[in-house]
Write a structure and sequence with these properties.
Layout: H1 3-18, H2 22-29, H3 45-48, H4 54-79, H5 84-102, H6 115-125, H7 127-144, H8 147-165, H9 169-185, H10 187-194
Helix pairs in contact: 1-4, 1-5, 2-4, 4-5, 4-6, 5-6, 5-9, 6-7, 7-8, 8-9
């Protein structure tokens, strides 16, 4: 099998797994209807939280992170865990898994913002970078109470953290690309933050 075919199959596999809209599926199963008609209309965990069901939102986070992480792991071991080709196939599957989450073909390419999916991908490919990004998110969330600002800050610092902690520059370049995508997907949030219209995290509730 050629290298190009391996990468192509990894990309397709990652995209299909990543495009499973767990936020939409779980909220419908729980009896909340179409999550796209609630709050921001996004299928991600932050919007699922607007149903008032915190466990459902947590489950959405876990599923969105798990699906992309799983795609990356399967691609790596299917091709060869100890080979450069296996590592690259894992990165390809992960990136396309995030793209699948953000732009699922089943929902006319209108998906989530990829924060949990990005975390899941980075966690299985370089856990020190993932845990550092999570720490940044938590510090920002508890300090400023804005989920979007926390995600934006973690994404903006992801390339810097990966430069020092990732095993090679290849990882840093991939993480930089997905960080830019996460920031771009938050364009509406950035506008609301500037206008001081963004809603805060209600930790007590």
């Amino acid at each position: 099998m050629s290298t190009e075919l391996i990468y192509g199959l990894s990309a397709l596999f990652g995209y299909l797994i990543g495009s499973v809209p767990f936020g939409l599926v779980l909220t419908k199963m729980a009896g909340y209807g179409d999550i796209r008609k609630i709050g921001s209309g996004n299928i991600g965990a932050t919007n699922v939280l607007r149903t008032g069901n915190k466990m459902l939102a947590l489950l959405t986070v876990l599923c969105d992170a798990f699906k992309v992480g799983l795609a990356a792991i399967i691609a790596k071991y299917a091709v060869g865990a100890d080979t450069a080709l296996g590592v690259n196939a894992s990165l390809v599957a992960g990136v396309f898994g995030i793209l699948g989450h953000n732009f699922p073909v089943w929902l006319k390419f209108k998906g989530g913002k990829g924060v949990a999916s990005t975390f899941g991908f980075v966690l299985v490919t370089c856990w020190p970078v993932a845990l550092s990004a999570l720490a940044i998110w938590l510090i920002m969330a508890f300090t400023f109470k804005y989920s979007s600002l926390s995600a934006l800050t973690a994404a903006a610092l992801l390339p810097v953290v990966s430069y020092f902690l990732a095993p090679s520059m290849e990882y840093t370049l991939v993480y930089t690309a997905i960080a830019i995508l996460v920031i771009a997907r938050h364009h509406a949030n950035i506008k609301r933050l500037i206008n001081k219209e963004e809603s805060k995290i209600k930790l007590k509730k």
